[in-house]
Amino acid sequence: MPLALLALAVVAFGIGTTEFATMGLLPQIAEGVGVSVPHAGNLVSAYALGVVVGAPVLTGAGARLPHKRLLLLLSGLFVLGNLASAFASDFGLLFAARFVSGLPHGALFGVGAVVASRLVAPDRAARAVSKMFLGLTIANIVGVPAGTALGQQFGWRAAYAAVAVIGLVALAALAAFVPHQPRGRQTGIRHELRAMGNRQVAIGLATAVVGFGGFFAVYSYLVPMLTNLTGLSDSSTTLVLALYGVGMTLGTLIAGPLTDRALRPTMYGGLALLAVALVVFYFTVHSTVPALLTITFIGVMGSLITTPIQMLLMAKAHDAPTMAAASNHSAFNLANAGGAWLGGLVISAGWGWASPALVGAALAVVGLGFAFAGGRMDRGGGHSGVRASSGAATAAEAERTAAVPARRD
């Protein structure tokens, strides 16, 4: 793995750690800033709101900057946001700091995915992007538990300070190892926004919001499901979440080669199997070993769909892939919010703790429907650009290097 990909993976590791560690430290944060735990939970929403807002705004603002310079600026903002979180004196300042910390999230992943795809040959672009995403999944295995333990032992501020240090390491690695990648001849926010108007980009984003919402409908309530239905203790749930992260890592590892080989079949298969796994979990959640096996498989399928959706958006945006790639992470955060809301809705309606699994399965099926709709549009056009190199300097070059017959899509 080139050192530049390793640097991008470190960025993803820091982002994954700061995004999810807050959830494990809510009691300590609530006590530290003098609010209730439910009120402290708004900090998670503040970060997600920052992601949704920052992805298109910061990507558009940096549309004319070389990718390496933009990565460095975004990483610097990430460090500042986490340092501000560590030193916030009250809830209002901490809320603002978490919002600022979330602003560069989507743009960093979007620009990083474009940079990663251009570091390798076009037929290995998805593998390069998936290696960057490995930093995010490994954060769920190592970074989040370690950050939670650090915050519980030395105070919640220490966790955010540690993430800021990770950000500084990532910043240094990006400066040292990522090569300069000039922008194409046509750059600017208007050019990026025109690419976002592509119907296939809109369908791809809808697939991410709805399909991945099925994953979050269960992930958001996994701990109470395990304690109330499976019978696990609170202390055991941390290990189960790490097991979930292992599944996500496995899914990311296999997603790259499969996406390079056949993008749409990988996306179709991932969404379909995710739906099946969620239905199975509805029945296996009452027994420990079957539940753990199903949880791992859900993690695999959840990560399996992220890389093909990312590559689809980058290809369909042709020579302006950066905002589409960044907006994908806004879509994932909307999926997080929507899936959690729908899961909570059915629990509150009295359908039981297992009911979010059925909601998640339904969302995955609807997401699969969006994916099939995009595939039919490709077949109607006679060819597909879904395997186009996101590193192509122009749309014409993308068509020359990657157009394939519809039957392989």
From TrEMBL:
Keywords: Cell membrane, Membrane, Transmembrane, Transmembrane helix. Residues 2-379 form the Major facilitator superfamily (MFS) profile domain. The chain crosses the membrane at residues 42-63, 70-97, 103-121, 133-152, 158-180, 201-223, 235-255, 267-285, 291-313, 334-351, 357-375. It comes from the Bacteria. The keyword Nucleus does not apply. SUPFAM superfamilies: MFS general substrate transporter. Residues 385-409 have a biased composition (Low complexity). It is a multi-pass membrane protein. It is found in: Cell membrane. GO terms for molecular function: transmembrane transporter activity. CDD domains: MFS_NepI_like. GO terms for cellular component: plasma membrane. This is MFS transporter. It comes from Streptomyces griseoviridis.
